[in-house]
């Protein structure tokens, strides 16, 4: 472990050092230009803090050019924040109301993806700065000039100074996974029609590479726009295709003549999709070929269904062949979704592949409406984005109220402490505050000594400032919040000592403000969802499985009886289940970033681990399978097959409800162990004499859902 830490530290220092060089150069250049070159201290302050806010406090993911693009788009927002903060600060009540509204809005914009979330803390600081004394709207011009200069210089520095290597984009990852699907499908289409252990491992690895948490934040398709949604859809469809191909099993004589053309067409479309993702042409030709061969295979199923009904002249197929055909059709459906999503992601409205409604509801939706859908989907207390925005907004508002009512000296620092020290869980907040107070105390002692020794000689502070900024922004992010707070305490003293005659009491004020801000952060860390995403993930996953159980029962009965039951409708997907999947995914992402569990205790070694990713995939598989089975509306099954499918659907739905209760138990939830439904359960092997391929397609879908359910908990099966 010591060797690993020793090797990782230089890389961490190198990354933070590059950022520190850019921020220090920009902040020092802007500050010295206005403070000593033009004698405009207000502009100097805003130039420095704009660079520190968006270059140091913000954590915008990506390369320098990507960050520069985000900063350039954020410049008008910075102007608005400075103007609004300046005019609302003249009265305490308006400043408090503004802090509540703006604080919530800037925190809630994190639903727009990692880049929006990364820029939000810096934008918060640019609003906090003009919200405190001096209350001087007449200085608005200098404030805007300083902030604009700082942001503009930072844009240039991010784009040109110490550029980092660019990671492979998400399109390249998806293209590699599509090529893996191409190889797997070709191996299955040719003798011996099996995948080797190496093929299965490659398929698993390619699918894992597309998991959102395994992708660098800057390349993760998490935004609300059409391109990001289509890229995420491409990744999900590709992972589903790889999973389907890995589960395909042919008979001893290889794949039947009916399915071989479909497998080859799946391979062709996978290869064409990879080319499209690498800025190539649309995969429309391969898409249309797969549609045609898939339709021919579906037509054989229709003839077999007529034979099962007793009509003369139609040849039926044995159950083993029907199972194989159903599994291949599932793979074909995933391949078609992959090709459509990839073409939409690369070519947008110029996509040549026909875009079906339902799954791709966002293809023709106006961009502001896509943002509205994202915001509305998270506008509720069950969203971790909403919870975090409320928590931050209340903490900032309380800090501004205390500073305004009690005329707290340098109340800006107290609000900044509340912003930077409030965390998503109570444990993490307490831990952060303890470190921050320790670091601030150490920094205050250093500051008091420095101010006492240097006195009013601003030349000392002017020389030390850029050197200290370089040191602070290099060491602070690596060594943690304690070091960061201590180093920043000295930094702000070096800045303010050049703006007004300094005394050692500046260190005392800084310590008092951080203490007040920490107390406010602790209060709201305890009162506002103190367990972070822990509870919400359990609730969201349980709700997802409950909604999925409803869809499973309705779909099974509809397929068995020919559409006798109406499914909940509404784009996108199946309404509430789709929203449950979204909330569960966001809670899972935050849960992964929270280092400890509630109460400071790690998970007990005997407690069953939960595979939250399996729960999410169960939701996606429920949606996709239901849509595929019911489009076009089924005509119904024979009596025996209908009864078998309805019973099996109820059993799988019951298992989903049991898994849901285990994830989020109520006060009187039964605790007796319940046997799992394995994919090899006898109901899956049933072969009713009147069963067409629709029956086996539904059984294959239900079997894949039970595989997801079996992975949710790693607890051993009760004997």
Structure, described:
- The protein is built from 25 helices and no strands.
- Helix 1 (about 1-35) packs antiparallel against helix 17.
- The longest helix is centred in the first third of the chain and has 36 residues, at about 1-35.
- It has helices at about 1-35, 40-55, 65-90, 90-110, 115-130, 140-160, 170-190, 195-210, 225-245, 260-275, 285-310, 320-345, 365-375, 385-405, 410-420, 425-455, 460-480, 480-495, 505-525, 535-560, 575-595, 610-630, 640-665, 680-685, 695-710.
- It is elongated, with a radius of gyration of 30 Å.
- With about 725 residues, the protein is mainly α.
- The protein is about 70% helix and about 0% strand.
Shape: elongated
Give the helix proportion (percent range). over 70%
CA radius of gyration: 30 Å
Cα-to-Cα separation, first versus last residue: 39 Å
Average pLDDT rating: 81
Which series of helices and strands comes N to C?
HHHHHHHHHHHHHHHHHHHHHHHHH
Task: Tell me about the largest β-sheet.
Answer: none
Given helix and strand content, the structural type is: mainly alpha
Strand content: under 5%
So how many helices? 25
Say how many strands there are: 0
**What low-confidence regions span 5 or more consecutive residues with pLDDT below 50?**
1-8, 306-315, 567-573, 596-607, 714-719
């Amino acid at each position: 472990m010591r060797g690993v830490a020793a090797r990782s530290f230089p890389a961490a220092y190198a990354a933070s050092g590059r950022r520190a060089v850019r921020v220090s150069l920009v902040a020092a250049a802007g500050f010295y230009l206005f403070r000593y070159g033009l004698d405009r201290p207000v502009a100097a302050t805003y130039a420095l803090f704009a660079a520190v806010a968006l270059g140091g406090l913000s954590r915008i993911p990506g390369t320098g050019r990507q960050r520069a693009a985000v900063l350039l788009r954020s410049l008008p927002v910075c102007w608005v924040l400075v103007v609004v903060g300046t005019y609302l600060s003249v009265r305490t009540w308006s400043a408090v109301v503004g802090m509540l509204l703006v604080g919530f809005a800037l925190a809630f914009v994190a639903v727009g993806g990692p880049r929006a979330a990364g820029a939000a803390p810096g934008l918060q600081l640019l609003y906090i700065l003009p919200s405190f004394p001096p209350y001087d709207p007449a200085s608005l011009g200098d404030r805007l000039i300083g902030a604009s200069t700082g942001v503009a210089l930072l844009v240039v520095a991010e784009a040109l100074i110490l550029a980092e290597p660019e990671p492979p984009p998400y399109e390249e990852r998806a293209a590699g996974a599509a090529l893996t699907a191409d190889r797997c499908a070709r191996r299955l289409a040719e003798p011996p029609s099996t995948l080797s252990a190496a093929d299965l491992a490659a398929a698993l690895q390619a699918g894992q590479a597309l998991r959102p948490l395994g992708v660098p934040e800057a390349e993760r398709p998490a935004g609300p726009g059409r391109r990001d949604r289509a890229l995420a859809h491409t990744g999900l469809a590709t992972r589903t295709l790889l999973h389907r191909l890995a589960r395909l099993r042919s008979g001893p004589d290889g794949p039947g003549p009916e399915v071989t053309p479909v497998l080859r067409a799946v391979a062709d479309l996978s290869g064409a999709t990879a080319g499209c993702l690498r800025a190539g042409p649309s995969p429309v030709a391969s898409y249309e070929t797969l549609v045609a061969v898939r339709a021919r295979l579906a037509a054989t199923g229709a003839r077999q269904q007529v034979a099962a009904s007793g009509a003369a002249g139609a040849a039926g197929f044995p159950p083993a062949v029907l199972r194989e055909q159903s599994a291949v059709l599932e793979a074909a459906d995933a391949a078609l979704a992959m090709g459509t999503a990839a073409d939409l992601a690369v070519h947008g409205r110029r996509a040549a592949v026909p875009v079906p409604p339902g799954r791709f509801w966002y293809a023709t939706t106006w961009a502001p409406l896509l943002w509205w859908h994202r915001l509305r989907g998270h506008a509720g207390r069950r969203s971790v984005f909403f919870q975090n925005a409320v928590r931050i907004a209340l903490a900032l508002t309380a800090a501004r109220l205390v500073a305004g009512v009690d005329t707290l000296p340098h109340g800006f620092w107290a609000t900044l402490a509340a912003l930077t020290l409030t965390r998503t869980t109570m444990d993490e907040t307490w831990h952060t505050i303890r470190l921050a107070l320790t670091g601030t105390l150490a920094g205050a002692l250093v500051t008091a000594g420095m101010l006492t020794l240097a006195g009013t000689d601003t030349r000392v502070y002017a020389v030390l400032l850029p050197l200290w900024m370089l040191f602070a922004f290099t060491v602070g992010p690596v060594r943690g919040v304690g070091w960061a707070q201590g180093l920043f305490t000295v930094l702000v003293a070096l800045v303010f000592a050049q703006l007004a005659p300094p005394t050692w009491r500046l260190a005392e004020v800084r310590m008092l403000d951080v203490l007040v801000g920490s107390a406010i952060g602790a209060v709201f860390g305890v009162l506002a969802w103190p367990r972070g995403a822990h509870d919400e993930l359990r609730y969201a996953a349980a709700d997802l499985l409950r909604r999925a159980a409803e869809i499973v029962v309705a779909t099974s009965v509809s397929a068995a009886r020919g559409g006798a039951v109406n499914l909940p409708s509404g784009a996108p997907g199946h309404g509430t289940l789709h929203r449950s999947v979204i909330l569960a995914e966001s809670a899972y992402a935050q849960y992964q970033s929270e280092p400890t569990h509630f109460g400071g205790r790690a998970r007990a070694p005997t407690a069953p681990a939960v595979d939250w990713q399996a729960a999410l995939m169960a939701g996606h598989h429920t949606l996709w399978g239901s849509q595929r089975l019911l489009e076009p509306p089924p005509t119904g099954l024979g009596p025996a097959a209908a009864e078998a499918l309805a019973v099996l659907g109820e059993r799988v739905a019951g298992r989903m409800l049991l898994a849901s209760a285990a994830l989020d138990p109520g006060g009187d939830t039964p605790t007796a162990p319940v046997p799992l439904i394995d994919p090899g359960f006898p109901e899956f092997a049933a072969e009713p004499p009147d069963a067409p391929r629709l029956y086996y397609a539904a059984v294959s879908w239900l079997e894949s859902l039970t595989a997801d359910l079996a992975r949710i908990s790693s607890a051993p099966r009760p004997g």
